[in-house]
Amino acid sequence: MKNFFPKRDRFTEVRPYQQTVLTALLWFTCSAVLCYASLHFYLGARWLAVAELCLVAYAALLLYVLHETGRAPASNLMFVLPFFCVMMLSLWTEKTGVMVFVWVFLVPLLSHLLLGRWQGLWVALVFIGCAGAIFVYKYGIWGGWIGYVSVANVLLCTASILGFSYIYETSREKTESELRALALADPLTGLANRSRFRDVFARERQRYLRNETPLAMLVVDLDHFKRVNDDYGHDAGDMALCFVAELLASRIRQTDVAGRLGGEEFGILLSDVDLVHARQIAEDLRDLIQDRAFRYRGKDIPLSASIGIAELGRDGMDFRTLFSKADRRLYQAKAEGRNRVVG
C-alpha cells in the first residue's frame, strides 16, 4: 500500500512538547542564570556575568513572545545555541571551578528534547567536544590510576546519557509517526481517511491559486455493494473494500491521493490533471475494477464502480462544492445504469 503521509520537517518545526520544554528552560534561564550572573559579577567574572544577563534578557523576550502569540520560535536553535555558548563561556572562565562541568550532562538531554534526533545529536556532540577541550586546556589529564579512572567515569557517563537520550528520541519519533499515520488513515483499507483527504485538497488548492495547477476529484462508489455483504457476509465485504483500495492505489501516481470517504465510497485527487485526462484515468480505473474479479473462498465475486468527476475551478473552488458536484455526477452515473463515468 502506498504511503500517503509525507515526513515532517524535523529541522524547522517546533512540536508542542518541545515548546513546553523550551518554556521551562526559558523560566530556568530567567531565574537560575540571573542568580549565577549576580554571583559571577561579585566574584569578578564580569564578562561572563554580562553574557549571562544578555541571555536572561533574550529568554525574557522569548517568554513574552510566547505569552503574547502562543508560538515558539521557528527553530529551537534560536535559543539552544546561545544557551550552550554561554555555558561554554562559563566553563572557560578562570573564576569558575571544576564542578561547573557537571552542567555538561544537560547538553545531550536538552539537545534531543528540543531539537529532535539528528539535529540534537550533532549539536550535543559539538558542545560536548568543546567542553572536553576546555577541560583539558584548563586542568590537563590527571596522571595516575585515580586520574585515569575519574576521566573514564566522566566519559562513560556522558556517552551513556548521550546514547540513552538518542535512543529515547528515536523511539519517541517512531511512535509519533505511527500514531499520526493511524490518525490520518482509514483503519480498514489503509488509504487516507476523509480528514486527510480534505487536508491534501487544501494543499492542492493553494497550488492552484499560486500556479493554476489543474486538480481533478474523482468520487468512486461500488455498485450493488450491499449484495456482497448480504450474500457472502461482512467479512467478504471488508476484504472486497481492501481489494478495491489496492487496485486504486496501484494505478495512481505518487503525486495523487486515494482515500476512503465512507462505506464503499472512495475519493481520488489527481494533481496536475484536467477534466479530459481525468476522464481517461477514471475509465481505466472503472475497467480495472470490472475486469479484476474479487476472489473470496474460491469464488469470483464480480465488482463494478460508478465514478463522478469534478475539476477545481471549473466546478467549484472549495471542497464542499467540488465534492458535491462530483457526487451528483456519481449518482447520475448510477441513474444511467451504473458501471460508468460521468464528468
From TrEMBL:
Q: Does the keyword Signal apply?
A: no
| Any single Gene Ontology cellular-component annotation | plasma membrane
GGDEF domain residues are 213-343
Instruction: Please name the Pfam families in this protein's record.
Output: GGDEF (PF00990), MASE6 (PF20966)
Sorted alphabetically, the keyword list is: Membrane, Transmembrane, Transmembrane helix
- Domain of life of the source: Bacteria
Q: Which CDD domains match?
A: GGDEF
Q: Which InterPro entries match?
A: Diguanylate_Cyclase, GGDEF_dom, MASE6, Nucleotide_cyclase, Rev_trsase/Diguanyl_cyclase
TM spans, by residue?
Answer: 21-39, 45-66, 73-92, 98-115, 122-139, 145-168
What is this enzyme's class at the first EC digit? transferase
Please give the coiled-coil regions recorded for this protein: none
The protein's name: diguanylate cyclase
